[in-house]
Specification:
mainly beta, Immunoglobulin-like, Jelly Rolls, nine-stranded mixed β-sheet, eight-stranded antiparallel β-sheet, elongated
Length: 720
């Protein structure tokens, strides 16, 4: 390219002179220049160019009109040129030409025949020929009027047509562009998503493991899947098994490929066509025992449509294409980079001759029905076969077979179903081996009513993995809330084998105020360990608290991501990470202390024991009163005056250690009446808060001071 440019730029015209009706000039063509052309103007002043020579030899030329000026074009060579004009002859006028057919923006259906026609005329001579072009490609020409060309077997695509007319003097003109579109022709079925000419790029792949590869597809009309095919590149050895699945993973048909060729599209037919519903997602797939497969990343970045069939664009109904590493055929559900694994479906709108698959539908339970755990779900189906008999009906939850029934009425009773969401289907098989699967029926089993005392985790909930140790004593906790007010009576944690040392359970407010503490005793070697606080702690509805325990030897149980979502049981909820800061929480500390750090939403398997029963509070009041009398004897750090009172009382207190505090007022049942004050104070600093009795009933109340050092209480009597 550079040599050609240098040659062109180094070429020149020189020695130009005009004498009468001749123009003399010299051309020097530099080395490397290719196909260099010269231009000579033809105007009313020069007259018509009648002859051109180089070194006395004739030179051929053609004429073209550019922006209204006629030029003679000739192939340049090194030498002396003489151009002879006839001043008395007018310059040649180029012909005019226009396409009359097809119309601009016309559409056709492939394979198309496009009849192209043009009008051409020349005012000072005759039209010698009309050429027809698609882009820069010449399609054909016509030497006589009417000027026409028939372009046959035109494939789908967009085209730009022009006509070029040349007159007897070599003048030429080109028509305006006419745009035409040829659309795909109607697809007749049996049909596939990919055309026979569609093939993968690159070479065969292998990830070192057997795998299943698939494509999610839909049909715009109901019909039948009769088979499966995949593209085999050279080197794709091993056994191949084709399978059709519902979108939820129910196997609808399977066939082993046989008689394969070394490469190209391989196709196998199912024993019985499978009826499929319009606008419903299915997965066509094949298993490669040796791990070889074809792939083009991004192949489903957009939908692939052929007739009624569409290979779904990635994201339309989850990822597409799909794969799974597995030693035996199984439902593929993973996806990567919208990859096309070159597996295809064979579809027909009619079942054709041969066995007709049975029809099956679930009649019970109703779609979106709800149950309460532990549930008994009675499943029933209708099944029939137009050209034979139904040999069995199988019942599935997802891909798990629950049971089957060989005779009508087709029923199965699914007992002791735990809480969860389930997808039920029935699969009918006829006497010829044909099979069909019902539409999915969704059911939900809700948790049964929870009676308290209760906990966030159920007795059957346990950690996975083995006990952990980071080499340091630590505190581990869970943020929780109750949907109703009540009482925390104790704490528990799951102990895996090897979790030695002393364990201390603690309840904190969300700001780190210690509400209760207890040392675990009588522990078992493993399992849930539980300890009760000396006094139940009243907690408010929809308020965050932290239940925790300290492990002196540093052992603990953990499952990362355990609080990626909330854990709820009855009124209690272990908060999802991020609801009120991080959850679960921890702190490296040699003695019990408030845990505030979090990591990867980890569940450290510590739990709260909660009750709504007011009867528990009676014991609480008695215990608190006894404790209050003892604590007043220890230094009067909490006092209430006047006591009894009728209008307003003052609560005065001094913190023994610097830190946060919370002062609450409780009734005789131990229920929280109101939070009087919370904040932070220095050690030895006296603080006070007023108690307004105007809105209270007369009787006994308890003032409770909570700090990191512990709990102090005082009784307060309101009289009228």
């Amino acid at each position: 390219m550079l040599t050609w440019l240098d040659g062109r730029n180094g070429s020149s015209f020189s020695g130009m002179s005009w004498s009468g009706s001749t123009l003399s000039f010299t051309v020097s063509v530099a080395s490397g220049a290719r196909n260099l052309e010269g231009m000579l103007p033809i105007t009313e002043k020069t007259g018509l160019l009648v002859n051109l020579t180089i070194n006395g030899a004739p030179v051929a030329f053609r004429t073209e009109t550019i922006k209204g000026v006629e030029y003679a074009f000739f192939r340049c060579a090194t030498g002396n040129y003489v151009a002879t004009y006839d001043i008395n002859a007018l310059p040649n006028k180029t012909p005019t030409v226009s396409l009359t057919s097809p119309a601009n923006n016309a559409t056709f259906t492939a394979p198309a025949t496009i009849n192209i026609a043009a009008n051409a005329s020349d005012t000072d001579g005759t039209v010698s020929r009309v050429e027809f072009f698609q882009g820069t490609t010449k399609l054909g020409e016509d030497l006589t009027s009417p000027y026409e060309y028939s372009w046959a077997s035109v494939p789908a695509g967009s085209y730009q047509l022009t006509a070029r007319a040349t007159d007897n003097a070599g003048g030429a003109a080109t028509s305006s562009v006419v745009n035409v579109t040829v659309n795909e022709g109607p697809v007749t079925c049996p049909c596939t998503v990919f055309k026979p000419t569609d093939t993968p790029s690159g070479s065969v792949s292998n990830d070192g493991s057997a795998l299943q590869l698939g494509m999610k597809f839909r049909s715009s009309v109901s019909g039948y899947v009769t088979g499966v095919r995949f593209y085999k590149q050279s080197g794709n050895t091993g056994t191949h098994t084709g399978q059709l699945y519902s979108s939820t993973g129910v196997l609808l048909a399977s066939v082993a490929f046989s008689g394969e060729t070394a490469s190209g599209w391989q196709q196998a037919s199912f024993a019985t066509p499978v009826a499929v519903s319009a606008n419903t997602t299915y997965v066509i797939s094949y298993h490669s025992s040796a791990g070889y497969y074809s792939v083009n990343d991004g192949g489903f970045g957009q939908a692939v449509t052929n007739g009624p069939l569409t290979g779904l664009a990635n994201g339309t109904d989850g990822g597409n294409g799909v794969y799974r590493y597995t030693s035996s055929p199984a439902f593929p559900s993973s996806s990567f980079q919208s990859s096309n694994y070159w597996v295809d479906v064979v579809f027909a709108t009619e079942a054709g001759s041969g066995n007709v698959a049975p029809a099956v539908s679930l009649t019970s339970p109703a779609n979106n029905a709800t149950f309460t755990a532990p549930a008994t779900i009675n499943i029933a189906a209708n099944a029939s076969d137009t050209d034979g008999t139904v040999s069995r009906v199988e019942f599935f939850q997802g891909t798990t077979k629950l049971g089957e029934d060989l005779t009508s009425p087709y029923e199965y009773s699914w007992a002791s179903v735990p809480a969860g969401s389930y997808q039920l289907t029935a699969r009918a098989t006829d006497n010829a081996g044909g099979a069909a699967t019902s539409s999915v029926v969704n059911v939900t089993v809700n948790e049964g009513p929870v009676t308290c005392p209760c906990t966030v985790f159920k007795p059957t909930d346990t950690p996975s993995g083995s006990v952990s140790n980071d080499g340091s004593a630590l505190q581990l906790g869970m943020k929780f809330r109750s949907s109703v007010s009540g009482y925390v009576t104790g704490v528990r944690f799951y102990k895996q084998s090897g979790n030695t040392g002393t364990h201390t359970g603690q309840l904190y407010s969300s700001t780190g105020v210690l509400l209760a503490s207890v040392a675990f005793s009588g522990e078992t070697a493993s399992g849930w360990q539980q300890a009760s606080f000396a006094t139940p702690v009243a907690v408010s509805a929809n308020t965050t608290y932290v239940i925790s325990y300290h492990s002196s030897a540093g052992y603990y149980s953990v499952n990362d991501g355990g609080f990626g979502q909330a854990v709820t049981n009855g009124p209690l909820t272990g908060l999802a990470n991020g609801t009120d800061g991080g959850n679960g929480v921890y702190r490296y500390t040699s003695s019990p202390a408030f845990p505030s750090s979090s990591f990867q939403s980890s569940n450290y398997w510590v739990d709260v024991v909660f009750t709504t029963e007011a009867a528990v509070a009676s014991t609480s009041v008695a215990s608190l009163l006894g404790l209050q009398e003892q604590e007043h004897r220890e230094g009067e750090v909490l006092s209430v005056y006047p006591n009894p009172f009728s209008g307003e009382a003052t609560v005065s207190f001094v913190l023994e250690q610097e830190g946060e505090f919370e002062v609450g007022l409780y009734d005789a049942r131990g229920a929280l009446v109101g939070l009087l004050k919370q904040g932070r104070a220095q050690a030895g600093e006296r603080r006070s808060v007023a108690v307004d009795g105007s809105g209270l009933s007369k009787g006994l109340y308890l003032v409770r001071l909570q700090t990191k050092a512990g709990v102090k209480t005082a009784k307060l009597v309101l009289e009228r």
